Amino acid sequence: MPVPQPESPARQLRCCGASGCRSAGGDALLAALRTACDADATEGLTIKPVGCLRLCGRGPLVACDGPEGTRLYGAVPPERAADLLAAAREQGAEAGGARAALESHRLDLEHPFFRLQRPVVLETCGQVDPESIDDALAHGAYGQLRRVLAELTPKQVRDEVRRSGLRGRGGAGYPTGLKWDTVALQPPGPRTVVCNADEGDPGAFMDRSVLESDPHRLIEGMAIAAYAVGADRGYVYVRAEYPLAIERLRLALQQARRKGVLGRGIFGSDFSLTIEVRVGAGAYVCGEETALLLSIQGQRGMPRPRPPYPAQSGLWGAPTLINNVETFSAVPAILREGGDWYAAMGTEGSRGTKVFALSGAVRHTGLVEVPMGMPLRTVVEEMGGGVPDGSAVKAVQTGGPSGGCIPEERLDTPVDYESLLQLGSMMGSGGMVVMGETTSMPVVARHFMRFSVNESCGKCVPCRAGTVQLAELLDRFVEHRAEAADLERLEELCGMVRATSLCGLGQAAPNPVLSTLRWFRHEYEAALREPSHCEPPDTCTVGPDGETRGYAP
Amino acid sequence: MSVVTLRVNGQEVAVPAGASLLEAARAAGVELPTLCHLEGLTPVGACRLCLVAPEAGGRLLPACATEAAEGMAIRTDTEELQRYRRMAVELFFAEGNHVCAFCVANGDCELQDVAVAVGMDHSRFPYRYPHRHVDASHPQFALDHHRCILCTRCVRVCDEIEGAHVWDVAMRGSQCTIIAGLDEPWGDVEACTSCGKCVDVCPTGALFRKEDTTAEKHPHAERAELLRRAREQHQWSNQ
Amino acid sequence: MTVTPASAATTTATATATTAAPASLAQVVRRHGARADALIEVLHQVQELHGYLPPEALREVATLMRLPLSRVYGVASFYHLFRLEPPTAHRCAVCLGTACFVRGGAQLARRLESRLGVELDDPAGNGTWAVQHVSCLGACGQAPVVVVDGVLVTKLPVDQPEELEERLDAAGLPRPATA
């Protein structure tokens, strides 16, 4: 795929400065590289801070570019800065020696983890300096916004997006083009675009990476969307837990305003747009769109019944387009290459690519962007390298607290919206947490239910009181004091909370229970207390924290 | 005035455009249980008792907060809905401390009435016996949080009808609680006009007049609508 | 390095300011033109000024923004990053997100509780230290993680007790005083 490349400097070191690598010592490494570079005044070698280089578990990551190709190094301590510099320079005895010395840190770019990736949203993530609009422009940022404003009508833009088959990447998978049309076709009046960057699913860090690595891509996508639906105002709602993402997004917006990419009469057209950042304050439910809008309005994030949908009546009652970070960020590439190009990737119902955050009991943790429809097994076992100790994967959790656990025997399922739903899970925002044999499923279910108890807004009774009762029922299973009637009660209450809760959080809260009941029912049944005699205490392994870790044979 | 026609339990009804499904059901002679809803206040769809099932399938709809649409067909009393309603009432009883026998609202309590209507005589879910308190700092009224079901009628009537906004909901999830001012004793909140509307609309014995004892509360939930109509349409029927 | 959610507000507020940090609550409110929708942003900045949201400050916010007291308190108490009580001198956040959970986050939380003599999510802690849980810091690639006074500490070896204790020492967490 032809990504516009700037005249690449002959030699450069790209250092990941996203929060994962920073916490692993990326800052110290970058500083050491700069000091070392200044000290020997090397010509023609650039040291560039960039965003996510994908394999977060091996950070800090440094990519070393040169005419002979790119080499990637991981877990490099700052003391090895001089070696990295030497390795990045021309061939020669010194460089050869340094490369040999770094060999243990070298990561294989031909490994399936990298080879099977198909970057679209992440195409310049790890390439551009997230704090420099000039670098972003050199990589083609805002090129599509300029073209769209000069050449296309809003309807043509929407048609292209509809043709791409793009569906909302926040979880529910609503067709993006349809949503844009709905907003655009509302009666005349002001409209707003909102980016949902309240990425709250535990195990998900895709949006964080995009914001930290390539914020201008998101801004461009939002601007194109605003033009397509006739909005002149935008908000990005980011969770406060992501300080670096917020800092970089604010910087990017400031730079974009200075460059005239945002503001009045953008690129000489009569299109104007302002975008503001709104920071959350620690409420998962604000990822639900009606709660998010109330939070932007400075209120408690309590969802309201839909309809009316935000597309009809959103922020301050005006038609409002809400998409998440990944959805907006896919738009520039779709406009550049065409909707058909995007639709050619993926499956019939789920077009294009999806970014996943791979974590948990898996060897290679980090970000992967792959075409929709790739079998889960390929992602988890080939790309992820399976469970670190070589034991079998037990289940893969997708969709966070709204999703479910997919058992090993179903790992050949293609990753797309419908297939995951059929398995009782969901795509969600893209978190994929791998679980090994030692993970007990009732404990997993209780973990998620406690999360929902903690995050319920408290407005409707099934979610406010129902999740509390569900968590208590699950305690009985985890602690091996459940009775047969509890299993029945558990299922019945799950059904009620799912059917009657007001918003998506409550409706989906039972999913982790229902999916583990479906695939791992024997673990619940094994946890039932025999009415006639007491359970011998040694039939399960109890971890040091008192939680059941697994079942002895 | 334009009219929409729809079917409720198979029966055709016509209601003014903009009417809710709850109004449509009532027009068809069908009574739906409600707790959070009150005529005259903005619907919130929180208690989930008035959920109805669209015949076309799809998610259940809160009748109070859903506009009736032309050609719609809904069911109000499927076996499933009846089960869900009963469970919702069980959850209400289990999450608070509701002891009817000693309650000021015994005999005139909407929660009690709903429990009878859905056939709930005990909760299959364990009672949680939460630690809550009673605020008797107001000279005329008191708030017993043990009996509060978080319907937010008091919050809405004080904000929308009286305009004082003394009440709001604080915290979240199962910790949610009705507060006055900055979570202060009610009697200390200067914004309160002591109008008593919150007491009038409270569906349980949570808000009550101090002079009332067991089974002596007689609420006036209809006042919210009368006042709203008087204010907005200049029609007085509260003689 | 990253920041705890507890102090995230601080950082974000710092990142907001294109001008100098406000010195008073009145300045904070004035900067937002007392627009009701700025309440959350204002509360973030007030928390930065005081370290938490004292009742007097909430009252002043309500007065200056012309909002009902109960609404201001309702919002402040809804969002878990707002503190309604003075914070302890030191704070530690343990991530109980799914990835951390799979890699022993719950055991880690127990370990911190016994090491510091605190109860998880008790804001008063032991008077000096408090430990709170967070639902996910998005550092899942480095699970399990804790944040000690704003510094993210990653890949804690839960299964190797001695090494774990050393890592926690290095992170600045005190060991229990030996009798």
Please, could you describe this protein's structure?
The complex is a heterotrimer of chains A (about 550), B (about 240) and C (about 180). Helix content of chain A is about 40%, strand content about 15%. Chain A is α/β, with parallel strands linked by helices and about 550 residues long. Chain A has four domains: about 10-110, Glutaredoxin, CATH 3.40.30.10; about 140-345, 3-Layer(aba) Sandwich (Rossmann fold), CATH 3.40.50.11540; about 355-435, Ubiquitin-like (UB roll) (Roll), CATH 3.10.20.600; about 440-550, de novo design (two linked rop proteins), CATH 1.20.1440. A five-stranded mixed sheet of chain A has the order 2-1-3-4-5, with helices on one face. A five-stranded mixed sheet of chain A has the order 11-10-14-12-13. Chain A has a four-stranded parallel sheet with strand order 8-7-6-9, with helices on both faces. In chain A, strand 12 (about 395-400) and strand 13 (about 405) form a beta hairpin. Chain A starts with 10 loop residues before the first strand and ends with a strand. The model of chain A is unreliable at about 530-553 (pLDDT under 50). With about 240 residues, chain B is of the alpha+beta class. Chain B folds into two domains: about 5-75, Ubiquitin-like (UB roll), CATH 3.10.20; about 85-235, Alpha-Beta Plaits, CATH 3.30.70. Helix content of chain B is about 25%, strand content about 15%. Chain B has six helices and ten strands; from the N terminus they run E-E-H-E-E-E-H-H-E-E-H-E-E-H-E-H. Chain B has helices spanning about 20-25, 80-95, 110-120, 155-160, 195-200, 225-235; strands at about 5-10, 10-15, 50-55, 60, 75, 135, 140-145, 165-170, 175-180, 205-210. In chain B, the strands form three sheets. Chain B has a five-stranded mixed sheet, covered by helices on one side. In chain B, helix 2 crosses helix 3. The longest helix of chain B has 17 residues, at about 80-95. Chain B starts with a strand and ends in a 6-residue tail after the last helix. The mean pLDDT of chain B is about 95. Chain C has about 180 residues and is of the alpha+beta class. The longest helix of chain C is centred in the N-terminal third of the chain and has 12 residues, at about 5-15. Chain C has two domains: about 5-80, no CATH class; about 90-170, Glutaredoxin. Chain C starts with a helix and ends in a 9-residue tail after the last helix. In chain C, strands 2-1-3-4 form a four-stranded mixed sheet, covered by helices on one side. Chain C is about 45% helix and about 10% strand. At the A-C interface, helix 1, helix 11, strand 8, strand 10 and strand 14 of A face helix 1, helix 3, helix 5, helix 6 and helix 7 of C.
